[in-house]
TrEMBL record, chain A:
Pfam families listed in its UniProt record: Skp1, Skp1_POZ
GO terms for cellular component: cytoplasm; nucleus; SCF ubiquitin ligase complex
Keyword Repeat found: no
Name assigned to this protein: Skp1-related protein
Region (Disordered): 163-192
Length: 192, 332
């Protein structure tokens, strides 16, 4: 009887205690990600592949210096949701074809700027599953649109708008320079 | 008389010049419509992203997602935005787009145009592998002069038209070579898939197999006939086509001979297998030929501003003609 109880306890131990890794975003926020979820990111998998499991608890967080906290949080949330899944394998259809599951569709209903930040973070962290879904969502916005419509959807300025912005910035800089010059001219007369 | 020695069948003296094209007009119109839309793509490529290429904006709903407001952003801040995505990311997004949408993407902004202008990137390699027949991809000589996947893909869209061809011709599995079957007392032609009406365009044409008594290369509108009874220089026999008969080096248009071409004494005869480059300059309304990269002089001028297709007509059984579009020729 006591032997059976001991056996059960031993069997339950691995399931109850996943290894949690700590990662830190560029604004200092620390997140935890499980060892199964880490496998969705090739970059993170390579970083932890040489760490002994018993040393994980005392390690400093892994610094991710070019991803912000809210984006890193989303990536980790996605990885936790899809932990245990195989990494996607590209088929060779043209145009490329992929079906985005419903959960991921809702997950990616975010502001376009956040979506682009998320895609760039996936590119750096090498999360192919989320990368495919994110790029697919962007492509679906673009299908069937004219160039003018694409500029509106993705907030892309035209060359004329770019020139106008540069001209405004230049005028602003010149105005500041002029104000500083006047200020410098005023001071010598005061000292005199 | 000497010209007939090579013929197993003596041609009749009477010719039926009024033979109509076997294509139905409704079929032609259907074929024409998608070409109209695709032509602007190549014209944009040739002209280097002209501003006039922007299509009209439609009032339909733009996107199921909310459109972010167009906030002015300082040009100095390196924020991530659609126009500043890394190249690798852009390529992944573009892999989901069909060809027509890739054209819209090329016209949207500079960075997208730069990404899609890399003519051997994965996107064009994918499309090339899927669109071109295996026989064309594996032929080491057919498209050798085209240096990039995108150019080869473009040549495919200009190749001989399998649905705008005489019934006695068929197009081989490589998609670029037309084969004339051995049918007596028949002249048989073929047109390219896409016509041109702006810019400067070059087509490399190679005649393999004997010429017979008629072997004409030239240009035609979509109304020019592609078949008639007898052995006739059909291309150039009316006001819808212009042709150069390689057998006697004579230029033809509207049924009239315009003289020998190249304009010299005893111009050399065409050697079977030589490459002829047909160049159509729609902006100055002239057409001319080069042979093995040698300029031969202006062939046709005062060409009306119509949509023109490369075309050939042949009479010899089992002769073959290959046509590859090469885009704008390099001047100088």
């Amino acid at each position: 009887m006591s032997a059976e109880v001991a056996a059960v306890e031993i069997q339950e131990a691995p399931v109850a205690a996943p290894i949690m890794y700590k990662v830190e975003s560029n604004d200092g926020t620390v997140f935890e990600i499980s060892d199964e979820a880490v496998k969705q990111s090739n970059t993170l998998s390579n970083l932890i592949s040489t760490c002994a499991p018993e040393d994980v608890a005392s390690m400093d967080p892994i610094p991710i210096t070019n991803v912000t906290g809210n984006i890193l949080k989303m990536v980790i949330e996605w990885c936790e949701k899809h932990k245990g899944e195989a990494l996607p394998v590209d088929d060779d259809s043209v145009p490329k074809h992929i079906t985005v599951p419903e959960w991921d569709t809702n997950f990616l209903k975010i502001d376009n700027e956040v979506l682009f930040d998320l895609i760039v973070a996936c590119n750096y962290l090498d999360v192919p599953g989320l990368m495919n879904y994110g790029c697919k969502m962007v492509a679906m916005m673009a299908i069937g649109k004219s160039p003018d419509e694409l500029r509106i959807i993705f907030a892309i300025p035209t060359d004329e708008e770019d020139e106008a912005a540069e001209r405004a910035a230049k005028e602003k800089a010149e105005a500041e320079k002029k104000a500083n010059a006047e200020k410098d001219a005023a001071e010598p007369s005061t000292s005199k | 008389m000497a010209e007939n020695d090579g013929e197993t069948i003596v041609p009749d003296e009477q010719c039926n010049l009024t033979a109509s094209t076997p294509m139905k007009s409704s079929g032609l119109e259907q074929v024409e419509s998608p070409k109209e839309r695709k032509t602007s793509m190549v014209e944009c490529d040739d002209e280097g992203n002209p501003s006039s290429g922007t299509p009209d904006e439609s009032p339909k709903q733009l996107t199921p997602h909310s459109i972010p407001p167009r906030r002015r952003r300082s040009p100095r801040r390196p924020e991530v935005s659609a126009s500043r995505l890394p190249l690798k990311v852009l390529n992944q997004i573009f892999q989901y787009l069909p060809l027509k949408d890739l054209r819209s993407a090329m016209l949207t902004c500079h960075s997208w145009n730069n990404a899609l202008s890399m003519e051997d990137s994965d996107i064009w390699q994918y499309l090339l592998g899927k669109k071109l027949p295996e026989a064309a991809v594996s032929d080491p000589f057919l498209l050798a002069e085209l240096g990039s996947a995108k150019k080869k893909l473009r040549a495919w869209y200009f190749a001989w038209n399998t649905s705008d061809i005489s019934r006695n011709n068929y197009i081989r599995t490589n998609g670029f070579t037309v084969h004339r079957q051995p049918v007596a007392q028949s002249t048989d032609g073929v047109r390219g898939k896409r016509g041109i009406s702006k810019g400067v365009h070059a087509f490399d044409i190679t005649w393999d197999g004997p010429l017979g008594t008629v072997a004409v290369v030239g240009i035609a509108t979509k109304h020019a006939a592609l078949h008639c009874v007898g052995y006739v220089a059909l291309l150039g026999s009316d006001d819808q086509s212009w042709g150069w008969n390689l057998v006697d080096n004579v230029l033809m248009h509207n049924g009239a001979q315009l003289g020998v071409y190249p304009k010299m004494n005893n111009p050399p005869k065409y050697e079977v297998g030589d490459k002829i480059r047909l160049i159509i300059d729609c902006d100055t309304h002239v057409a001319y030929f080069e042979r093995n990269s040698e300029f031969l002089g202006i062939a046709f001028n005062h060409i009306p501003p119509l949509r023109l297709y490369p075309a050939v007509c042949a009479v010899y059984g089992n002769t073959e003609v290959t046509m590859v579009y090469v885009g704008s020729p390099q001047m100088g």
